[in-house]
Design goal:
alpha+beta; Peroxisomal Thiolase, Chain A, domain 1; ten-stranded mixed sheet; 12 strands; globular
């Protein structure tokens, strides 16, 4: 331990292009993609063969073989095999939480360096069978004689061979994230037109970021592709408005495929360290990770599933003494356009900020021109566990380009949780 807390430097990040599920990466695994994202950082910052203290990474959709995913990715990468790998998972907040965990260790002197990363693929979703067939297969694998094998198979019916379909529904409610968000949109009276406009802006900004070269160093080509294949530079508000709603068919339904994130495959990583570790290797420091917070809501008892970031940000601001307006950039994960708009409206609500957040006055509004200035998940896609690392790397580069400033990150997650962070460049 050090006698005083150290600043946590963000050197920078790298990700592979994010691609719609069952397209470019249909044959790639989480291990393949995570390894590529880590090697992108290795290549960008010339740390091949270097022993880092830790790589902390995870995936939301994973096979049983992925139990040691982070360590296996290290061994497959160009890092020193002496680098430890830690696998964790906090739904869509996974890689942001990994960055916060590493940052805490760096700040107090437990470690000097680490990579936070995440990966996800729904193209390679695990297909499982019901408990009865699974138990039968375990019994069969343990059989040593023909009689034991026949006993294990006795009574086998074709119905047992039916696989359990993958689902993204919440265990406690049975509703999908989109269905929960549709409820939020109706509760907060979020208009369809406003959602479509936010989605349009995200695509336009992401396309412009590619054209101006902002993503040149952040995105590493993989499997023959160099750009996210979900970005639609040619979309329009009119095209988005013409799409059917997908989570509810009632007259009040507002969420469509265009204002919701698509199922996406991809991986992202970001390198964090102490200032001394960076200086010893002549590595640049783009920004500093100063603070973070995780919060949860009781969505089972009718709180909005994706409203936890409103709580996390409010608590983090109270702890740091900052206001919601003290930021040059806001990176709010666009799981759904409605989620972003619900969050912004909640921060502006006197009633919500008083009754739910315990504040004397609303957090207030933000300058929308500072929100997701290079697009976000609606445009580039959302491989669940990779999004946090993508946002940290994006915001760090934004702050480096500006030369100074402060940025706020807000990520909603399944399970009614939210993760947030503050990045700063003095």
């Amino acid at each position: 331990m050090t006698e005083s807390m150290r600043r946590v430097a963000i050197v920078g990040g790298s990700r592979i292009p994010f691609c719609r599920s069952n397209t470019i990466y249909a044959e790639k695994s989480n291990l393949d993609m995570l390894t590529a994202a880590i090697d992108g950082v290795v290549q960008r910052f010339d740390i091949e063969g270097v022993q880092l203290d830790e790589v902390m990474a995870g995936a939301v959709i994973s096979h049983s073989r992925d139990f040691n995913l982070a360590r296996e990715a290290v061994l497959s990468s160009k890092l020193s095999p002496l680098t430890s790998g830690i696998t964790l998972q906090q739904a869509c907040g996974t890689s942001l939480q990994a960055a916060l965990n590493l940052a805490a260790k760096i700040a107090c002197g437990q470690i000097d360096s680490g990579i936070a990363a995440g990966t996800d693929t729904t193209s390679d979703a695990p297909i499982v069978f019901g408990n009865k067939f699974a138990h039968r297969m375990i019994k069969l694998s343990q059989a040593r004689t023909m009689k034991q094998r026949l006993d294990a198979l006795k009574g086998l019916s074709p119905a047992e061979l039916k696989p359990v379909s993958p689902t993204n529904g919440e265990m406690r409610t049975g509703l999908s994230m989109g269905q929960h968000c549709e409820r939020m949109a109706q509760e907060w009276e979020i208009k369809r037109a406003d959602q479509d406009k936010l989605a349009f802006d995200s695509h336009q900004r992401a396309a412009r970021a590619y054209e101006t070269g902002f993503f040149d160093e952040l995105v590493t080509s993989f499997n023959g592709v160099s750009r996210d294949n979900n970005v639609r530079a040619d979309t329009s508000v009119e095209k988005l408005a013409g799409l059917k709603t997908v989570f509810d068919k009632g007259s009040k339904a507002t969420l469509s495929a265009g204002n919701s994130t698509p199922l996406t495959d991809g991986a992202a990583s970001v390198l964090l360290c102490s200032e001394q570790w960076a200086a010893d290797r002549n590595l640049p420091v783009q920004a500093y990770l100063n603070s973070g917070r995780t919060a949860s809501v009781d969505f089972v008892n009718d709180e909005g599933l994706l409203m936890a970031p409103t709580v996390a940000v409010a608590e983090m601001l109270q702890r740091t003494g900052l206001t919601l307006q003290d930021f040059d950039f806001y990176e709010i994960h666009e799981a759904f356009a409605a989620q972003v708009l619900c969050t912004l409206k909640a921060w502006e609500s006197k009633k919500y900020c008083s009754e739910r957040l315990g504040l004397k006055k609303p957090l207030g509004s933000i300058d929308r021109d500072k929100l997701n200035v290079n697009g976000s998940s609606l445009a580039v896609g959302h491989p669940f566990a990779a999004t946090g690392a993508r946002i940290v790397a994006t915001l760090s580069q934004l702050l480096e380009e500006k030369g100074s400033g402060r940025g706020l990150i807000s990520v909603c997650t399944a399970g009614g949780m939210g993760v947030c962070a503050i990045l700063e460049r003095p």
